[in-house]
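Illustration 12: Catabolite control protein A.
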Amino acid sequence: MSRAFSQPELLTPATVEKVLVTAQRLGYVPNQVARALSTGRAGNIALILPDVANPFFSALMRGAQAQAYKRGYATFLGDSDETAHLEDVLLGKLAAQVDGFVLASPRLDEQLIRKHAARRPVVVINRDLDGIGRVLVDTTGGFEAAVDLVAGLGHRTIAYVGAPVSSWSNQQRANAVAITGATRGLRVVEIAAGRPSHEAGRSCVAKLLESGATAALAVDDVVAQGIMAGLAERGLFIPRDFSVIGCDDIIASTTYPPLTSVNAHCALAGANAVDLLLNGLANPTPPIESHVIKGELVIRGSTGPAPALVPAPGGRTRGRKVAPAEPDPSSRK
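Figure caption equivalent — predicted structure in token form:
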């Protein structure tokens, strides 16, 4: 019976189900303290996130917790508040209570991550470290497709609105936009949003408009949503006056207009990371694995043709027309 709770992957699904049904009927509950004494395992894992309020990490957390529960493990959650120091503290304090860690988008430097991985098994998400199990959400292709989309719609200056430079995902996305933009003959402006948030997106709108960009590709949907709000406050309509693209595809379908976004399969990343960790715990000499999840562009209503520019005195380009107080009927979706 114990194996059905501790290592269900070693049994057939029918056997596991039969054991669990019988245990439920008898009111049997595994004694975690006794199990820890006999096996050296606590039956817990920890998931460390930079920002639990960010929809990407919330979805990742749900995927990870569901998979851990399915395999008989409880999940501790730590929010590092986007700081490497707190990440380090959480890894140190939780190590005695868990069998291993899933470390999502870590802000720690490589040396410290390896130090903690030598103490407890660690799987990282969105950090490519040789010798450590990892799940990489590769959104490069999605951002390349996003640049191709806006180029095909006539946009000549675009902006990438990014996150902290310590973010592996941000680096991949910024590079994809810069390289693909250059290939398509576009002018690419990079704007740092700082910590990804709705307010960060709103705050960068002035720089976006000053740059002459007519389309923005944001590091995630939350920043993109903030950009949309900031543009609306200035009387601009999307996509008539400006196009916006996000990433993660968590809240994209709920914005107005619905947001074009790169689907990052967040929940799947969390589930895969838990599987890598628990498979490693079950195998004394586990192979170091790397799972790559490909993101793809989902086109919705926030992208459209580049706006016509208004000639300024002297023949220079002054910028887009500011929309009237009410949109014309053709702009409604």
